[in-house]
Each structure stands twice: as structure tokens, then as C-alpha cells.
Amino acid sequence: MLIPDFITVTLGLAVFLIGGMLNRKLALLRRLNIPEAVSGGLLASLFFMGVYLASDIEVAFELEARDFFLVLFFAGIGLNARFGDLVSGGRPLAILLGLTLLTILAQNLIGGLGAAMFGYPAQAGVLFGSAALIGGHGTAIAWAPDVAAATGLAAAPELGVAVATLGLVLAAVVGGPLAGYLIQRDALTPDRPDQGPIAGLATPNGAPPQTITPDGIMRSLLYLNFAIILGYGAWEGLEELGVKLPLFVPCLVAGIVIANLRALLFPAAPEIARTPSLALISEVSLGIFLAISLMSLQLWTIADLGPAILAVMAGQTLFTVVFVLFVLFPLLGGGYRAAVLGAGFGGFALGATPTAIANMTAVTKRYGPSPIAFVVLPLVSAFFVDIANAIVIQTIVNF
């Protein structure tokens, strides 16, 4: 049964609100920094799995409208970025990129060992590894035919989707608790507490409430539309040159350019970056996207693969947690920003960039802002990594 776009978005709104209600009632979810969209989305996906098990009806959703909210969110991330942040973020960006490349190799090693242990062809290890985890559903689906052709594994598409599905679930519940543990263990505080929010309207440490005005909302929407129009034009141009990127990447870059040109050319104009209006739109956009993404997970596909996927994913999750605690966090300086990036890294290493951002948003809403983290992580996870991941996967599949 295919649910049309409009109803999909309507259900996503309801699921997000249900998640908020759960988080308000269950203190454990708040302590673990679980985003509202994750709480509601996972509950909804369990419900639809129950429908499938009881009636054999597969509920699927049209997702085109969902993807617009992702583009809107990343355009907002771009509008919040200042050139000074990009300069300050150079070192952590380089470190995070290097650590991500190591993670791609480690995930495929773990995936290859798991594939061999459970009788799968060695090349199928990429579907237990970076193709489905750091790559997500899209990369797993794109590479599954190549794996099937190289190995004769007819179930390669189902395997990739199942691993990506379970990875997204784990990513949504691992990142927030990791950061919360590090922040509380080391009594960390924000590096730049005076900065406005990237997403969310929480006011940590007793700060006064933030004011939202109709003019602020309209101004934010206007700049967001400018960024999306410019980003879409750049995306089409890159497509013609043979460069394939997710649409939200050029929209992110367009937002950076527009916001900083505005500040340079019209310094007296009303501020757009890190205003409560833009933060509210960003939070709502990400929440709707993530609620729909998790609600639409077909969890019954995981059960079909039995112990193999559970064992390998346990290994992948353990590696990610250990890597964040003992490698990534110290190398990034061991401060508040490193902890926030740890939440994000747990999100995209096992799941996807939106999950990473949702994890970081939940953490910063509770403990305080970390603007550079919101610029650095998307540049690594949504831009550089796609290229490196494709090279590694191609090499393994063709080996």
C-alpha cells in the first residue's frame, strides 16, 4: 500500500508531535538526548511492522516532499555559517575527514569478516560495511547490482537495504548518549556560549527566551528560497559536467555564499544568521524529514536476514562507540565541540547525515551551541566522503 506525498507529510507531523510527547513523559529519552523525531519515528515504524506481521500488508510512502525539508534544512545550515567559522573549522574538518576515511576502511573490514563468517561472498562485505552505513540507503541501492553481478548474490539489494535500515535505527539512538556521557564525564561547556542557535530554540543555562517575529520568519524563508534557487542551478550545472552530488550540498554552499555576501555588502541590513526564526524553521524542517524517514523504515526486512545482520551490526556499533570515545574525541581536542561532533559522527557513521545533525541538535539544545560543528560535519559527511566511499567500494567489488 503506497501512501501519497501529502498524507506522508501529514503523518510525519503527527509522528513528530507524538515523539515530543514521549520525550516529555519519559525522562530517560531526555537524558539520552534522543531527538523527538527519533522517538516518534521509531514508534511509528514498529507500528507499521506490526501491521505487516498481522496482515501481510506492506505500507510504503512517497518521499519526494520529505526530501524538500532536507534541502530546506541544509540551506539554513549554510545561512548560519560565517567565513570565520570555516577558517576556524579547517583543522577539525581535516581531522574528521581523515578519521572518516579510516572508518570507511574499518567498516568494510568488519563487513568482509562478517560476510565470510556467515557464508556470503567477500565482496558482499561492502553491503555489511560502508556502502550501507556511511553511504546509507541510496549508496547501498546504487551498488547492490554491482555486488550481485560480481558475486551472483541475488539478494544483494535486500541485504543492502536491511543493513542501511538497521544502521539508521542504531545511529539515531547511539550518538546522543555518547555525547551526553562525554559532556557529563568531563564537565564540558560550550566553547562559544554567546553564539545563537543553529537549530532549536532551547535556552541553556537560564538564558532569556528568544523572540520570533513574522518579519523574522518571512526574511528567513526569503533567504532560504534564494539559497535553494541558487543551489538548484549549481546542482543542474554540476550534473551536466558529470559531477553527482546530493541536491542539499550545493544548497548548503549557496547559503554560505548568500549569508556572507549579505554581511559584507549590506552590513546594516537585519541579521539572518543564527536568529531564532531561522533556528525554528531549521528545527521543524529537520524534524519532519527525520520523522518521515524513520516512520517509513520497513523493519521487517531486517528480520528476514536473521543472525548475520545482527552479529555484524553489533560489531559495527561497538567499533563506532570505541572509535568515538578513544580516537575521535581526543584527536578533536577533547572539548565540548569534540563531544558534539562525536554525536554527529555516531549518527552518520552508522546512518546518514540528517541523523547526525538531529543528534547534534538534540545535544546542543540541552547543553548549548556549537556552530562550527554544524558546518564541519555536513561538509565531510555529505561531500568529501561520498567520493572516497565510492573509490573504496569500487576497488573491493572489482577485486
Q: Report the biggest beta sheet as strand number plus sense, adding barrel if it closes.
A: 2 strands, parallel
Instruction: Estimate the strand proportion.
Output: under 5%
Shape: globular
Q: Low-confidence parts lasting 5 or more residues at pLDDT below 50? A: none
Order of secondary-structure elements: EHHHEHHHHHHHHHHHHHH
Helix content: over 70%
Number of distinct beta strands: 2
User: Radius of gyration, Cα only, in angstroms?
Assistant: 20 Å
Structural class: mainly alpha
- Report mean pLDDT, rounded to a whole number: 86
Biggest sheet, spatial arrangement of strands: 1-2
Question: Quick gist of this model?
Answer:
This protein is mostly helical.
Structure description:
This protein is an all-alpha fold. The protein has one domain (73-285, 299-397). It contains 17 helices and two strands. The chain has helices at residues 5-25, 27-31, 36-55, 64-80, 83-88, 90-117, 125-128, 136-151, 156-185, 214-240, 248-265, 276-295, 300-303, 306-331, 336-350, 353-367, 371-397, and strands at residues 2-3, 60-61. Strands 1-2 form a two-stranded parallel ribbon. Helix 3 (36-55) packs parallel to helix 12 (276-295). The longest helix is centred in the middle third of the chain and has 30 residues, at 156-185. The chain is globular and about 65 Å long. The two termini are 40 Å apart.
